[in-house]
Each structure stands twice: as structure tokens, then as C-alpha cells.
Write the C-alpha cells for this entry.
Amino acid sequence: MFTKKEAYNVAIAGATGAVGGAMLETLARRNFPINGLRLLASERSVGKKIKYQGKEYVVELLSKDAFGGIDFALFSAGASRSLEFAPAAAAAGAIVVDNSSAFRMDPEIPLVVPEVNPHAIARYSKRGIIANPNCSTIQMLVALKPIYDKVGIKRIVVSTYQAVSGTGTSAILELQKQVEDYAAGKPLTRKVYPHQIAFNCLPQIDSFLDTGYTKEEMKMVNETRKIFEDDRIGVTATAVRVPVFYGHSESINIETERKISAAEVKKLLASAPGVKVVDEPSLSQYPLAIAAEGEFETFVGRIREDESIAKGINMWVVSDNILKGAALNTIQIAEQFFKG
Ligand code: NAP
Ligand code: 3JM
């Protein structure tokens, strides 16, 4: 049972990572009412000091005993750590919001984007865990939800252009080093990705399944159906890693149930929560990854009718994958418990 308080005890599992760091920044930017903060990571980081709002915190070991007195436990330390430690955090009384893929498709665990299906949070109490969707799913559904509600969506065809920060700090450093080595005329080395990522596009995110799809692509298919509570919606995805540091871009084509014009879509999205329309082709204004970096919104542009079918729309959707795709969405889920 959740009880409202003036301020809450918050634990971050994976506090030293790319997402964990963004969680700290986002808590501060949103004035999240914090009483105590516990920063957890692996033994590699134990004893490391991290500043939050002028106060120094010492990183502690992520363990099953680390969650006593915690109100919200925010997990971003990888799926296997979530499987191992999130149930213990929930058993200790914390509300767990998990960023990994560990629990997303568990029917007893809500999978939530606050702008899309906030009602699903009510079912959290069974297991004490709420799952944060994959970054690519979140921004796609923030942009599509108003259209889905207005005219219905039969089918989604999406191709993603995903930033390296989605893989974590090691991938950010790998892209940076490859670019520096290239400029210095040195041979390039790789460790994180199966191929050079600098000046390249890799049509593989996560591992391949027997069907020929990657797990990342199937996350978008299955999570969309769960969040929209619609098993009939067709979704097909191609997920591509591109040499961008922050900000995932998506080319989205939808077939709607009823006809909607591009002008109507623009109008609908102009007042949609969490969305900002940037769509002035004559001025070369459209959503860009470098402009989305550090922002909370999902940016939508290049809105146009698909002239190859009777009821289709194309659009370009960009958001900061570490913020709305991970840290921000997680914190918005926690805020649902005490807001309003
Ligand atoms: P990262 O930069 O590589 O950071 C990983 C974090 O996990 C670090 O704090 C690391 O601590 C911690 N960690 C790793 N192994 C651990 C262990 N055995 N015990 C305790 N802590 C451990 O990765 P990231 O980009 O922040 O992503 C972290 C996770 O968040 C991902 O694995 C994924 O599950 C999830 N994620 C979700 C989305 C989404 O789409 N919603 C997007 C990105 C990430 P040390 O510093 O001590 O190693
Ligand atoms: C984004 O446990 C792991 O190796 C985590 C891999 C990972 C995931 C995941 O599957 O949880 C890295 C980046 C995600 C995600 O959001 O699905």
C-alpha cells in the first residue's frame, strides 16, 4: 500500500551508469520530493562519491538488503540484476520501477508510459513492480496515442535510428574513440558492437531470433500490443544503431482504421501531452537528435499522408532516449503515485 508523504526515500540501482546518472539529473530538474537517497551499483563502484544537489553520496553495493525503508526503487542495472534484486526490493516495501526488459511482458506487471496508459499502474500492487518500456517503444507510442484514440491504428511500420547511449557508457566511449582515432589517422578498434559504429549504420540491436528479427525489434512489437491493450494491431520494426550520441529517431508509417488528414494529425499532436510538433519543411525545420538531447519532449515532424494507401500517415519522431526513453519515464511513473 502506498502512503503519501512530504518526501520519499529513493534508491537507484545502477546509479553510476548512463541511465542512473540521468535519473539523478531528472529527479533534481523535476524537484522530486526526496528525503533520503541511496545510490547502488556493482562492487566496482562501491565507495565512489556522487554529488546530488550539493550533497555527497557514497555508492553502496546493490544487494538484497539494500532496500530497507525505501519508498521508490528505480532500477537500471541490466535485466539480470533486475531479476535478482527487484523482487527483494518489492518485498522490503519499495515500489519498484524497472528500466530493463526483465519484467515487461509479465502479465502481472504493468508496463507504463504515463501519457499513454497511466491507468495500468493500479495493478502494480500484485508484485510491487512496474516496468518501463523500451526507449524506442516509449517515444513511438507518445506520438501515436492521440491518433490511435481518434481514428484507430491497424498497422505500424517503423524503422529506428538509435543513438549509442542506449547501449550505455561503454558505447558512448567507443564511438568517441573511433572518431578520434579516425581523425588522427590511427586504426579503429571495436569491442561493444560487432562492427565499427563510427561513420556506419548497424541493422542489429540486441541479439537475433530464429525469425530473423532482433530482440529489440520484437520489444517494439510486443510492448506496443501490451500498452495499447490491442492484440490485433500489426507492428513490424527494423532497429538500426547509428553513430549519434543521444536521441533516437524513428521513421513511422501507420495505416489507420478511419481516414485522417496530415493537417488533422498536426492539430491533434499540437495539444498532445509530452509532444512537440516541429514541422516547417519550407524552413528545413523538423525533429533532430541533436536538438532533442537534454529535452523531455517527444518531437514529431515530417507529418504527411501516405499516398500509396487510402488511410496512411508518415512521420518522423525523435526523443532523448536516455530521458523520455528511460530516466524521465521512470520518474514520471513514480510521480503518478503522489501527483494530483
Ligand atoms: P551502463 O552505462 O553500462 O551502466 C550500467 C549500470 O549498472 C552501472 O551503474 C553499473 O554499475 C550497474 N551494474 C552493472 N552490473 C552490475 C552488478 N553486477 N551489480 C550491480 N550493479 C551493476 O548502462 P545504462 O545505459 O545506464 O543502462 C542500464 C540498464 O538500464 C540497461 O542494462 C537496461 O536494462 C536499462 N535501459 C533501459 C532503457 C530503456 O529503453 N528503457 C534504455 C537504456 C537502458 P558499475 O558502475 O558499478 O559497473
Ligand atoms: C536497453 O541485461 C542487459 O544486458 C540489459 C540490456 C539492455 C536492455 C534490456 O534488455 O533490458 C540494454 C539497453 C535495454 C532495454 O531497454 O530493453
Observations:
- The radius of gyration is 20 Å.
- The first helix runs from residue 18 to 29.
